[in-house]
Amino acid sequence: MTSQNSTPSTPAADGRPRRRRGGRGRGTGARPAGEQQHTAQAPQAAVPAPPVVPVGSDATVLPTDTTFAALGVPAPMVEVLSTSGITAPFPIQVATLPDSLGGRDVLGRGRTGSGKTLAFSIPLVARLAASDSRRQARRPRALVLVPTRELANQVFAVVDPLARALGMNATTIFGGVGQNPQVQALANGVDVVIACPGRLEDLIGQGHCDLSAVEITILDEADHMADLGFLPGVKRIMDRTPQTGQRLLFSATLDNGVDVLVKRYLSSPVTHSVDPAVAPVSTMTHHVFQVQNGDKAEVVRQLASGLGRSVLFTRTKHQAKKLAKQLTAAGIPAVDLHGNLSQNARERNLEAFSSGASRVLCATDIAARGIHVDDVALVVHVDPPAEHKAYLHRSGRTARAGAEGAVVTVSTPDQAGEVRLLARQAGISPKVSVVRPGSAEIEALTGPAAPYVEPAPVVEQPQQSGGGRRRSGGGSGRGSSAGAAASGGRSSSGEI
């Protein structure tokens, strides 16, 4: 049985129009398709599809014994999945596909990355293919709303091959990059838009995008969008989509206003909860390393020095950037990931970590949630998170798809009470050790230290004269630990 977990790439937003299959589809859903057509494009032949890039799982989730064909997935899509090595669905797919393929509104609750991306991508593409509507300029037929640029790229990597197989196309829309390619993609006509709320609202306000023809809307990681304060924008966007359209909402929890979205926008939804949303993973070991303040930096360096991939979490962007630079200078290749990086820098740093060019990723909570990279051996909470849900989401970067992984919380004396409360709320019983640099407990988790890697020389960039504003598309600035650029803040669209 083949797992759906592999290290995903992060493709750039694809604004190129692709051709769509002709012919009338078979209406299979309970919801009617959109009938409005303005400058509808003629049917076109399908183009070859690249492999599906599956998004990995945070949970101990193994494929089931059923098949995609048995669940009603169209044969061309089954073939694309099989070619990509995806032959057996995960539990959340088995649970939701019969309802979503049938046109029902669905509320899916489960761990981030537990197979839900494919769970909504399959019915999204299948039902569009069965619809009588046609692709139109500036009027997408389906919308996927996501909280972050990285997640938009990852969803695109799953949706796009399936869409191509049935003669359709997809594109991404998010801030931090220039909007012209996105505007052009919309003008050429696009079937599926995968978007972050801020930039999408910008383009709607400029008249480049009209959501009145949307037949299927998907809200992915709705709880994360709530955490980031995006729900007002999400509501404004949802109000622009037809009430008759099918809607799917996926969220780990229903707090922070997510329950309001469910009541307001989903019509008699079928609820599927697969794998507890906020719970520890059985293949994950938890440790608390109690250290003195003066020993903390060296203990963290030694934790990062192993041969395996490690993700180190800090509370602030500045700390993540500083730690990555310090580790790189110490011969441990590290990159940072946080909201102050330009989109190009974020993608470059994530690719360096995914490919193994850098073994260590120093990240903040918001930037790293939804990032799916397999074979992470160790997660280190350099700074304990503020609450237990963040602890579980951080820790979920390791112990994926049944693999083993270790999580270490570095605790100074003044943090001892905070860490005990955190563990109790998270439902874990960590092994607590008093640790100093060189302690056996460190090597027991990291294994032998990796060879020293000579840091690349830092090339100082000349200062720009004048006080002109930077473009939000983010040209390169001063190098980070991986030579990546920092944009100095959020994009104008407010996306992370």
Task: Write structural notes for this entry.
This protein has 496 residues and is an alpha/beta fold. The chain has two domains: 69-273, 3-Layer(aba) Sandwich (Rossmann fold), CATH 3.40.50; 284-446, Rossmann fold (3-Layer(aba) Sandwich). It is 32% helix and 14% strand. It contains 16 helices and 14 strands. The chain has a seven-stranded parallel sheet, sandwiched between helices. A seven-stranded parallel sheet has the order 10-11-9-12-13-8-14, sandwiched between helices. Helix 14 (388-395) links the parallel strand 12 and strand 13 (405-411). The protein is globular, with a radius of gyration of 23 Å. The model is unreliable at 1-48, 53-62, 276-280 and 461-496 (pLDDT under 50).
Outline of the structure:
This protein is of the alpha/beta class and 496 residues long. It has helices at 75-83, 91-101, 116-130, 149-165, 180-188, 197-205, 222-227, 231-239, 258-265, 296-303, 317-329, 343-355, 365-368, 388-395, 416-426, 440-446; strands spanning 106-109, 142-145, 170-173, 192-195, 216-219, 246-251, 270-273, 284-290, 309-313, 334-337, 360-363, 376-381, 405-411, 431-434.
